[in-house]
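dumping this here so i dont lose it
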């Protein structure tokens, strides 16, 4: 940006190339998604066990993408599905992918990753499509949120950060994922619990963990909130300092104090689940539930749970459907309190 400012004449050509690059990237995404939908649609009569499509409604490298890729590997490793294809449909906290899924009515060989972020994103983006418009299959596991600061930050503990934040709420930038997502909600909940004016919450939403990390290391934000696995490598490398995990009790195997241990009575985890398109027959729905249940019980997925330090909270079918309804109500209350989607 500084180079463009200092050398104005050559600025236009790079800008044109940049716009062109963006246009082609968007076009390429549309083509890939259209091809994915067309391919699965043409084989919709095939059993999901022979060919299964997994939609990650986010860019590569994020939490939903990780769940999709791990599911792909587990399904193949344990011989549950012959061919598993993953496609990324990023945008608007997953609601773009959600909209695409609703256009695939009756396709019993398709699943999409969802979770807490999407519930909040539906509210924040005032999405006309909700999780009530798709077919609940299963909740798989939950991931834990973590609050981190740069290694060079003066804040050695959570209390120090919260005191500085309370003294200057508007001037304390907090980074994280999508507006209305888990990171945003947890930041607001922690602020409210500590008496920080949430109407002055300076939350900066990033499209992925990489952008959030770069902003943190560049001191663009004072702290960042994300899934533990998004920052685990950076925490271990000493590039960032973890101040708290977003739970009331300490998470086994994670050497970071919980919010509850530090007298902040707040907990919000990021659950991950799978949903199917609308219009599935009872037989199609049951096949998908059986596939995901077998995956969850298999050794490959159990290794995934342990390796990523997730917590298994599996439920499926109607029980998961009932959970989605109560979760939408719960997140709706939190979002209303924080002025999200108002």
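and the seq i came up w/
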């Amino acid at each position: 940006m500084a180079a463009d400012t200092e050398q104005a004449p050559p600025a236009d050509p790079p800008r044109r190339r940049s716009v062109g690059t963006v246009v082609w990237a968007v076009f390429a995404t549309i083509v890939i998604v259209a091809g994915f939908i067309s391919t699965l649609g043409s084989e919709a009569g095939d059993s999901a066990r022979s060919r299964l499509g997994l939609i990650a409604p986010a860019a590569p490298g994020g939490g939903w993408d990780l769940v999709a890729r791990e599911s792909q590997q587990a399904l193949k490793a344990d011989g549950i599905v012959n061919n598993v294809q993953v496609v990324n449909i990023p945008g608007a906290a997953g609601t773009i992918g959600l909209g695409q899924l609703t256009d695939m009515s009756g396709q019993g060989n398709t699943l999409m990753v969802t979770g807490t972020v999407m519930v909040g994103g539906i509210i924040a983006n005032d999405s006309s499509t909700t999780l009530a418009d798709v077919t609940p299959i299963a909740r798989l596991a939950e991931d834990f949120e973590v609050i981190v600061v740069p290694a060079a930050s003066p804040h050695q503990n959570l209390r120090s950060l919260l005191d500085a934040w309370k003294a200057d709420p508007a001037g304390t930038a907090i980074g994280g994922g999508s507006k209305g997502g888990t990171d945003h909600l947890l930041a607001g909940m922690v602020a409210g619990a500590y008496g920080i004016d949430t109407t002055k919450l300076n939350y900066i939403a990033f499209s992925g963990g990489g952008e959030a990390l770069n902003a943190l290391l560049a001191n663009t934000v004072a702290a960042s909130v994300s899934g533990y696995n998004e920052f685990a490598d950076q925490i271990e490398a000493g590039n960032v300092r973890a101040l708290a995990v977003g739970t009331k009790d300490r998470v086994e195997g994670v050497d970071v104090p919980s919010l509850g241990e530090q007298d902040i009575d707040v907990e919000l985890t990021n659950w991950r689940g799978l949903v199917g398109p609308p219009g599935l027959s009872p037989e199609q729905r049951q096949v998908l539930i059986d596939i995901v249940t077998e995956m969850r019980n298999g050794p490959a997925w159990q290794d995934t749970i342990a390796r990523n330090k997730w917590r298994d909270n599996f439920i499926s079918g109607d029980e998961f459907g009932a959970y989605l309804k109560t979760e939408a109500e719960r997140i709706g209350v939190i979002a209303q309190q924080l002025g999200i989607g108002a």
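The longest helix spans residues 12-42.
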